[in-house]
Automatic annotation (TrEMBL):
<dbReference type="InterPro" id="IPR057326">
    <property type="entry name" value="KR_dom"/>
</dbReference>
<feature type="domain" description="Ketoreductase">
    <location>
        <begin position="6"/>
        <end position="180"/>
    </location>
</feature>
<dbReference type="InterPro" id="IPR002347">
    <property type="entry name" value="SDR_fam"/>
</dbReference>
<comment type="similarity">
    <text>Belongs to the short-chain dehydrogenases/reductases (SDR) family.</text>
</comment>
<dbReference type="InterPro" id="IPR036291">
    <property type="entry name" value="NAD(P)-bd_dom_sf"/>
</dbReference>
<protein>
    <submittedName>
        <fullName>SDR family NAD(P)-dependent oxidoreductase</fullName>
    </submittedName>
</protein>
<dbReference type="InterPro" id="IPR020904">
    <property type="entry name" value="Sc_DH/Rdtase_CS"/>
</dbReference>
<keyword id="KW-0560">Oxidoreductase</keyword>
<dbReference type="Pfam" id="PF00106">
    <property type="entry name" value="adh_short"/>
</dbReference>
<keyword id="KW-0521">NADP</keyword>
Amino acid sequence: MKLDNANILITGGTLGIGHATAELLLKHGANVAITGRDEKRTHKTARSLGAFPITADVADYGDVKHTFSTFLNEFGHLDALINNAGIGIYKPLDELTIADFEQVYRVNVFGAAMMASMAAKIFKKQNYGNIINIGSTAATKGYEGGSVYASSKAALRSMTQSWQVELRKHNVRVMLINPSEVTTAFGNEDREERHAQPNKLRGQEIAWAIKSALEMDNRGFIPEQAVWATNPF
């Protein structure tokens, strides 16, 4: 896929991996729209990047439909969806509630699925398209307190594999990027970015992986890729 003048939609694009990805793709000539739940933050970030802002919550199906209608009104067609929006809750097993699962799954699983469903309708008509899901290395190996988050990313991984089988015959590439720990605002209640550390991943490393996956010629794709810090210890 050629990035120059490609139309790309990134969910959760105001901070962290989404922000770094939008910045990198714009730098290489793509037209990028970012979504965010906070209207003020979304518009401010979009202005600073040169992206198109869409205020929306992927956990709300009405917002999902609004996102695509707004995007298509602005750009005309869609080349790639990057399902980046995600949240996490970390609790011991004996403190978990159904509400914890519902809150996280509405974003990480249901929201990602509904975004992909809308994109698939477009891509099947075009006989072309790209979906990149931002998963986690937690999907392949659980950890203490990770019942909710790790299982949500495992569900996303399984859905990705199903979509790959379903959409390949329509020339649609579905790819999964699994970051390990990234120093972003993820998990911070104040939504402020954490300071970068020399031995930890940044959003930029994940953005590089996303860009590289998209730029492969359309005849091939990378189904799944993990990104680890070289020496986090």
